[in-house]
Amino acid sequence: MNRLFRIFIAGRFALLGAVFIFSCLSLQGCLIPGNSNVIPVYTYDITNTYPHDSDAFTQGLVFEDGVLYEGTGLFGQSTLRRVELETGDILQIHELSDQLFGEGITIYGDEIIQLTWQSNIGFVYDKNSFELLQEFNYSTEGWGITHDGEHLIMSDGTSTLHFLDPQTFEEIGQLEVFDNDGPIARLNELEYIQGEIYANVWQTDLVARIAPETGRVIGWVDLRGLLTAEDRSEPVDVLNGIAYDAEADRLFVTGKLWPKLFEIELISPE
User: How wide is the angle at C-alpha 141 spanned by C-alphas 206 and 137, nearest 5°?
Assistant: First the structure.
């Protein structure tokens, strides 16, 4: 199966995603109906650029202990990886069954949790050895996953985030994500950063900053222009992948099949 065709079949819900417009999105922010508050729209500065495996269909990204952990997708190519940030070298890899389409990952304690797309199966691995410790099930599709220190937070491609017990994996709550114009669908890769949930919105260059108490989008990050024309000389897919280095306060982003991973600093709107 050639690479372009793999990209094509990986375009989940392409018809639904053909038109996706945030009518309020502008560099001036978004007016909240009924008052004068605005939802800020952040831009970015690139502070560092690192190599990224251009064959990695990035579905999940985490930074811990000085290295990246990455979950990749596509049938027959899905993996869990430990990656050296500075070189992009794969330090350790676990391959999923060819019948599984890997999705988001998170690290909870000494374990890595990985979702799959439509198989309703998640995996728990030992963080150091990648030994499979446990499987669990969920009723929705699996897209992105993160945690707030107490609960796992999972996306399923809709506007709903699911809160799971990290021990039993039972669902204990849901959160509807919305902005001024209503629900925000196609929430994908997730990262919990300083009390907020960051979420890639599939098929856009936008990251939503979500208040976990209410589900309201309290900020947008506009990441248009990260990839240059030269970067796009080979087939690339959409922005997807957010990782945060809590110790050094560094934010990393990349995309599916992207040749680079970027360390960025967010710029507040004036």
Answer: 135
Q: Output the six-digit token pair for 6.
A: 């793999």
The whole-angstrom separation of Cα 58 and Cα 56 is 5
pLDDT (tens digit, 9 = 90+) per residue, 160-205?
999 999 999 999 999 999 999 899 999 999 999 999 999 999 999 9
pLDDT in tens, 2-50: 443 344 344 443 333 333 334 444 434 454 344 446 899 999 999 999 9
Q: Report the C-alpha gap between 210 and 225 in whole angstroms.
A: 23
Contacts of 24 (CB under 8 A, 6+ apart): 30, 31, 39, 179, 180, 181
Cα within 13 Å of Cα(191), Cβ side? 25
Neighbour order of strands in the sheet with 152-155: 145-147, 152-155, 160-164, 171-176
What residues does each domain of the chain span?
3-267
Scanning the structure block, which residue is given the tokens 């196609």? 186
For position 58, what pLDDT does the model report? 97
| Among 111, 115, 89, CA closest to 102 | 115
Instruction: Please say whether the dihedral angle defined by the alpha carbons of residues 10, 11, 15 and 16, taken in this order, is positive or negative.
Output: positive
Pure H helices in the chain: 3-9
Query: What b/e string do you get for 181-217 counting C-beta neighbours within 10 Å, with b at 16 or more?
Result: eeebbbbbbbbbbeebbbbbbbbbbbbbbbebeebbb
Smallest Cα–Cα separation from 4: which of 58, 74, 63, 108?
A: 74
Structure tokens that stand for 228 in this block: 């240059």
**C-alpha triplet 214, 217, 222: angle, nearest 5°:** 160
Residue type, 208: A
The architecture of the domain spanning 3-267 is 6 Propeller (2.120)
3-state helix, strand, coil in the chain (%, to 5): 5, 50, 45
